[in-house]
Amino acid sequence: MKKEDFDLFTESLQQAIDYKRGNKKAARSVVLSINVPEYEAGDVVAVRRKLKLTQKGLANVVGVSPRTVEAWEAGVNRPNGSARHMLYLLDKDERVLNLLRA
Fold it and tell me: What does each of the 102 residues of the chain score in pLDDT, given as a tens digit?
């Protein structure tokens, strides 16, 4: 990911957090153009381990149930939509995890 895209994403994520905390003026729309790969079972496990998260921890960060993460890691199904994008961003730069925990 280009530094400019990451910086834009970081700013947008912070605005989303501020919005959720009650600052309704913080919101704005941004469209990022990134090519997000498909994630296979082993890829999901690798990202989770890289971040030192449990399945439940990854589920909380990505916004899915722990059973969903289990299914991804078992190869029953694959991440799609926003979960796939979040995995991509977490995989590319671990600082995203710190932003989400703020």
Answer: 678 777 877 777 777 777 777 776 766 655 556 688 899 999 999 999 999 999 999 999 998 999 999 999 999 999 988 899 899 989 988 888 887 776
Residues 68 and 73: their CA atoms lie apart, in Å, by: 9
Do 22 and 49 lie in one domain? The reply is no
Check whether residue 69 and residue 25 sit in a common domain. Answer: no
Three-class SS state of 15: helix
Rounded Cα distance between 5 and 2, Å, is 5
Q: Determine contact, residues 82/36, Cβ cutoff 8 Å.
A: no
Q: What is the pTM of this model?
A: 0.68
Question: Mapping DSSP to helix (H, G, I), strand (E, B) and coil, where does residue 100 land?
Answer: helix
Q: Count of domains in the chain? A: 2
CB atoms within 10 A of CB 14: 13
